[in-house]
Amino acid sequence: MQEKNPDVSGLSLVSAHSLEERLLLDFYDRMYGERGRALARVWKWLSRPGFRDEAGPIVALHDGRIVAHLALVPTRVSFDGQLQGVIRGCDLAVLPEMRGKGLAILLLRKRMEISTLHIGWPNEKAVGIYWKTHWNESRDSYLHFFLLRPFDHPRFIGSVSPALRGTLNAASRQLLGLPYHRYASSVKGLSPVSPTPASLAGLVTNTAVPSGVLQSVHDEEYLRWRLIESPEAPRYKIFNVGDFAMAVKLCEKRGHKYIDLLCVPSGCSVRDIRLLVSTLAIWGMREGYSYLRYYTNSRSVTRYLRWSLWGVVKRTNFVFYSSDRSLVERVQKSQWHLELIEGDFEEF
């Protein structure tokens, strides 16, 4: 696919950290509206300045204002016995009046100059830009939805009264709960706690990573930044089920509540994951949550959970790039092991 030649007249690409913050906040407001206020709270934290020299977001400046934006989130994976730097890109956006000028491609090219491994979960509108700039695809990328109150779906909220939706949810609870009750641990006494260094200890990566697997590194520094230092920290909780800990985010969106299962211990088997999902689902049902989300790159885990817990699975776009062709060839032969905590699915 032929790349579009960007119109770069009068544009400069810079880190948002080098500009007055008001310019970025104005862009967020114009581009995202209400969501822009959430991004204004988290953008500095999300870019992890100081973790790498190339702190994002990268922005396009034109006539004294930001007209395009690409956030960069640095992290690391363990790969064949070494730590490999990774940068996740997200929130690639161009103001409507500046579209059609190739600015998104320009930002991607700038990002691709950074010598590391890049990953992303582009939506359907944006994925074509990644193909034009020669990114690689991994088709093993699965977002699971485990239904707890199915009639809280937006299609019902506007057309069915709250009383009737409550009745229908109650009627479906017994059927939906069958697989969860079959595989769950007891939820008696199960209570979420806030993330602290002590409560996060059970999530610190402490198992060897097999050869040919790219696994996210959940060391103490990463978990502290991601869960304790986050502006969203009050929504993050740690659940302990037997010998296992799991990190979740308790979310609320347009009148309904849902749970994001962010990560589980690195040594969990597929049966352990099923136990944790089932136990969290039972707790979520009792607390009035509508659904539970879980992400994996594993095709076998996906098949196991889908058929044993009756979940709904969405295959999502997942792309990667490196200017190091030998690294790309190794990655293409390997298996990713990322979780929702690394992904581009959490809403701010």
Examine the secondary-structure arrangement and name the CATH architecture of the largest domain: 3-Layer(aba) Sandwich
CATH class of the largest domain: Alpha Beta
Q: Sheet bearing the most strands, described? A: 9 strands, mixed
Distance between the termini: 34 Å
Q: What value does the average pLDDT take?
A: 93
Q: What multimeric state do the chains show?
A: single chain
> What is the CA-atom radius of gyration, in angstroms?
21 Å
**Helix and strand composition category:** alpha+beta
What's the count of strands?
A: 15
Overall shape: it is globular
Strand content: 25-35%
Helix percentage range: 25-40%
| Helix-strand topology string | EHHEEEHEHEEHHEHEEEHEHEEHE
Low-pLDDT ranges: none
Which helices and strands appear, and what pairs or packs with what?
Elements: E1 11-15, H1 21-32, H2 34-47, E2 58-62, E3 65-79, E4 82-94, H3 103-112, E5 117-120, H4 127-132, E6 136-137, E7 142-147, H5 154-157, H6 162-183, E8 213-216, H7 220-228, E9 236-241, E10 244-253, E11 256-263, H8 270-286, E12 291-296, H9 299-309, E13 312-315, E14 319-321, H10 325-332, E15 335-337
Parallel strand pairs: 4-5, 8-15, 11-12
Antiparallel strand pairs: 1-2, 2-3, 3-4, 3-8, 5-14, 6-14, 7-12, 7-13, 9-10, 10-11
Describe what you observe in this structure:
With 348 residues, this protein is of the alpha+beta class. The chain has two domains: 11-136, Aminopeptidase; 142-315, 3-Layer(aba) Sandwich (Aminopeptidase), CATH 3.40.630. Helix content is 32%, strand content 27%. It has helices at 21-32, 34-47, 103-112, 127-132, 154-157, 162-183, 220-228, 270-286, 299-309, 325-332, and strands spanning 11-15, 58-62, 65-79, 82-94, 117-120, 136-137, 142-147, 213-216, 236-241, 244-253, 256-263, 291-296, 312-315, 319-321, 335-337. Strands 1, 2, 3, 4, 5, 6, 8, 14 and 15 form a nine-stranded mixed sheet that branches. A six-stranded mixed sheet has the order 9-10-11-12-7-13, covered by helices on one side. β9 and β10 form a beta hairpin. α6 (162-183) packs antiparallel against α8 (270-286). It is globular and about 60 Å long.
